[in-house]
Amino acid sequence: MLKTSFKKFYSIYFNAPKGTGKLVPLIVIESAAICITYFISVYLMKSLGFDSFQVGKLISALSVGTCIGSLFSGYLTIKINPTKVAALGFLIYSIGFALLSMIVSYYHLLFTLFLCGFGGVFIAVANLTALIKLAEDDIMKNKILVIQSVVFNFSLSIFSFLLCYLKTEQIRALFLICALFLACTSAFVFRIKEINSINKKVLKVERDKINIPLVVLIISVVFLYGVIYSLVKVYFPFEVNVRFSNNPWILWLILSANPICVVLLQPVLINKLKYKTNTFLLLAGGTLVGFGYLFFGLTTYFIPSLLFICFATLGELIFSPISKKIAATSMGEGKEGLGFAAWKMTYYISGILGATLVGYLGVNYKNINIWIACAPLSLTIILCIVGFEFFKKTNINMVLRN
């Protein structure tokens, strides 16, 4: 029984398409770099003394860079090998980290974070496009997105913990090391030949139609999801640090709850939920994310905080890969890169607005618990999905009558 369970668990992560092994190291490096910039809010508040409104504007600069980079990277993945696009992204990101190691002014920091966002999305879109083109069916696409999610969340845990405890000069040294490493990675990736199966399918860009209602749904719900996570990016690292910094082990456990849940729960989600409809999964994921972080913000105790983070993580595990898969396939075969780029651009446009808004509210309305905003955002996701299902059923009934 135990042996069979282990084999099933093992197959989730290692029974992947040929060529995945060459891409996973790139995803590890990409995830580490992106996670450092995700949790830069701790460094900005603790080491540089910025308030939440300033941090919100800086995180928005990161999001602006990502939005603009999404347009370029999505187009480039159609024209050239995705690994070459990733190499360009690593080079741009290395320049961003080099500039972060020698910050001289607030506006210099704005430009630097813009550059990090621009380069980071090149890497993310290129790697996901290369991975998804290796898959032959939906189950394998789920597995591939799971691998990416697991790697990213482990990186998130490690680097959020580091940025909470490293001193200012140590963090700047980390930025410089990252810059050198990413520059070397860029040179290495550029020399990689085309990975088998990436271009095995004939592109049918002209023949495949875009599923417009599905695209509208994904843009709507991902926008709302992004606003929730812009709040998390600005407040979560600092909030956890304030609550539990006196106990490093509790702090580590809170920050590690996300990747631990990813590893333990993902096999169950892949095997048990693959028969559910995609829109049902989006609804469940959006509900858990919003209300998980809402209740996390309403408590200050360790056990409830840990429990609600686990709920929010479960929602993320459901919502993120399913929405990415829908975005990739809704654009038509051969245009997966455009689908991922649209997902990223929507997510970060919402991040621009969300980070600035929550930062402003945090400075000017300190008596308001900012985490309460997660509830109406989650409810709006539910309404969007219900509205889409109603529209789809109405169209089907009209076709049947005719």
TrEMBL record:
UniProt keywords, alphabetically: Cell membrane, Membrane, Transmembrane, Transmembrane helix, Transport
InterPro entries: MFS (IPR011701), MFS_trans_sf (IPR036259), MFS_Transporters (IPR050171)
Gene3D superfamilies with a match to the protein in the record: MFS general substrate transporter like domains
Primary localization class, coarse: membrane
Signal peptide: none
Entry membrane topology: Multi-pass membrane protein
Native source organism of the sequence: Legionella beliardensis
Protein name in UniProt: Multidrug resistance protein, MFS family
Pfam families assigned to the protein according to its UniProt record, in alphabetical order: MFS_1
GO CC terms, sorted: plasma membrane
A single GO molecular function term of this UniProt record: transmembrane transporter activity
Entry's localization field: Cell membrane
Keyword ATP-binding: no
Membrane-crossing segments per the record: 23-46, 58-78, 85-104, 110-132, 144-165, 171-190, 210-229, 249-270, 277-295, 340-362, 368-391
Lineage: Bacteria, Pseudomonadati, Pseudomonadota, Gammaproteobacteria, Legionellales
